[in-house]
Amino acid sequence: MHELAFYALAACMVLFTLLTIASRNPVYCAIFMILSFAATAGLFVLLGAFLLAAVEVLVYAGAIMVLFLFVIMLINLRTEEQEGLRLNPLAIVAAGTFLALVSRALKDLGPAVADAPNALEGSPGLIAETLFRRYVVPFEAVSMLLLAAILGTVVLARRQRGES
Amino acid sequence: MITLEHYLALSAMIFTLGLCGVMMRRNVILVMMSIEIMLNAANLALVAFNRHLVPVAGAAVAPDGQVLVFFTIAVAAAEVAVALAIAMLLFRRLDTVSVDDVANLRW
Predict the structure, then answer these.
(1) Are the beta carbons of B2 and A3 separated by less than 8 Å?
(2) Does residue A68 contact residue B84 with C-beta atoms inside 8 Å?
(3) What is the pTM (predicted TM-score) of this model?
(4) What is the mean pLDDT of chain B?
(5) How confident is the model at residue A79 (pLDDT cuts 50, 70, 90)?
(6) Which one, of B58, B66, B1, lies nearest residue A120 by Cα?
(7) Rounded to whole angstroms, how far apart are CA atoms A55 and A105?
(8) Highest mean pLDDT: which of A24-38, A113-127, B50-64?
(9) Ordered DSSP codes for chain B
(10) Smallest Cα–Cα separation from A51: which of B61, B69, B45?
């Protein structure tokens, strides 16, 4: 049952990711990306990260994707600008190198990790406990970063005086 | 039995697809989507590692990897907001969203 769910979700994820980077229409790309992130959320559930699965759907498939769709529709690309994949030999080389390195690294993962999963389940209480005790300083730093991003976006996107 | 290697191999595949997307697409919005895909692949690897850590004797495994994924998602959201504002500016000033048209800083 676990195997079946993993392979189904993994196949969905690879397929939708492929469609995301290969579709000609940017709106389709955004839709396929939502589906890819939904499959990731399913994999998070299989890994016991229940809170993260919910956050993935809310933040990625909800907020970030709406942002992308908004900008795609504001920019309103003409059809001749909708291009597909451009085959780039450098990209093939980079992808091949990366895959070779990872498959070598997968051969000996070391004693700190095991094939069998441990008992960890990412319930909201446990995550909050860790986040607000051990990681409270990084948490505050991230909130400052988000504030900076909001201010930066407003400053960038504001129409300058004298501009139409 | 689904092992850690399965998740890591899937994560590597998704990351490679995102890498190809960054290098092969010209539309700046699609390049950003590919970056999000790469971040997502890294998130998957982090959660998988966290789930397969060997617990130290007498202690439960801490959800450090999952907390790190939290931070990644927050940083990705901030990055997308600023980057999309830049893309809007680009389109407003130069009437293009192609990365080839704004390659002045490229060596």
Answers:
(1) yes
(2) yes
(3) 0.90
(4) 88
(5) low
(6) B66
(7) 30
(8) A24-38
(9) ---HHHHHHHHHHHHHHHHHHHHH--BHHHHHHHHHHHHHHHHHHHHHHHHTBPPPTTSPPP-HHHHHHHHHHHHHHHHHHHHHHHHHHHHHHHS--BGGGG-TT--
(10) B69
Q: How far is the alpha carbon of A54 from chain B, nearest alpha carbon, in Å?
A: 11
CB B4 within 8 A of CB B52: yes
Query: Which amino acid is it at A51?
Result: L
Across the interface, whether the CB atoms of B47 and A119 are under 8 A apart is answered no
CB A105: neighbour CB atoms within 10 A?
11
> Which own/partner contact pairs does A8-13 have at CB distance under 8 Å and 24+ positions apart?
A9/A39, A9/A42, A9/A43, A9/A46, A10/A39, A10/A43, A10/B6, A10/B10, A12/A36, A12/A39, A12/A42, A13/A39, A13/A40, A13/A43, A13/B10, A13/B14
Q: Complex ipTM, two decimals?
A: 0.90
Contact: A149, B81; criterion CB under 8 Å: yes
A–B CB contacts, 8 A cutoff, strictly below: 236
Cβ <8 Å between A148 and B78: yes
pLDDT (0 to 100) of residue A121: 81
How far from A72 is each of A5, A14, A25, A65, A77, CA to CA, in Å? 33, 24, 10, 10, 7
d(CA B72, CA B66): 10
Instruction: Tell me the C-alpha distance between B29 and B36, whole Å.
Output: 11
Q: Cβ distance A85 to A22 under 8 Å?
A: yes
B66 has a pLDDT exceeding 70: yes
How far apart, in whole angstroms, are the C-alpha atoms of residue A76 and residue A70? 10
